[in-house]
Amino acid sequence: MNDLLSALGHAAVYAAAASVLLVVAYYVLDVVTPGHLGTHLRGTDETASSSAALVAGAWLVSTALVLFTAIWTNGETSMGMALGWTVAFGAFGIVLNTLMLFLIDAITPGNLRAIVCEPGPVRPLASVAAATALSVAAIVCASIA
């Protein structure tokens, strides 16, 4: 029974840390895109941006994959060490996603960050930005494992 309670306590700590990092990832994307990201996501059919939804979803999945990998691969170590790895690699993934968004914006035509927030259906550049976020997650996850 003590093992179960200990495991539940660890799960609660990991869930809290992961939740904070997911919120941070969302807010970082909000800061680096024009306007208020929530407005682009919550808008009506005429004002909502499917591109912004795709990119925001990819950022959150990317961050979650990194967090999952850090927790999974370090679960056997002490709670403090595993939590440290989780927070460090989660933050590192968010920083890399941000840098890659700016890099992709610099090498593609137009203003990628603005295009991602335009209302309407998914724009091709938004698919590139989403794929980049998932690629960053794969690279960071591989470096953890």
Major sheet attributes: none
Overall 3D shape? elongated
Low-confidence stretches: none
From the alpha carbons, calculate the radius of gyration and give it in angstroms: 17 Å
Estimate nothing, just give the exact number of structural domains.
1
Strand content: under 5%
What is the fold's blueprint, element by element?
Blueprint: H1 2-32, H2 37-42, H3 50-74, H4 79-107, H5 112-116, H6 124-144
Helix pairs in contact: 1-3, 1-4, 3-4, 3-6, 4-6
Q: Could you explain how this protein is built, in words?
A:
The chain is mainly alpha-helical and 145 residues long. The protein has one domain. It is built from 6 helices and no strands. The protein is elongated and about 55 Å long. The mean pLDDT is 92.
List keywords for this structure.
145 residues, mainly alpha, 6 helices, 0% strand, elongated
Task: Provide a concise account of the structure shown.
Helix content is 81%, strand content 0%.
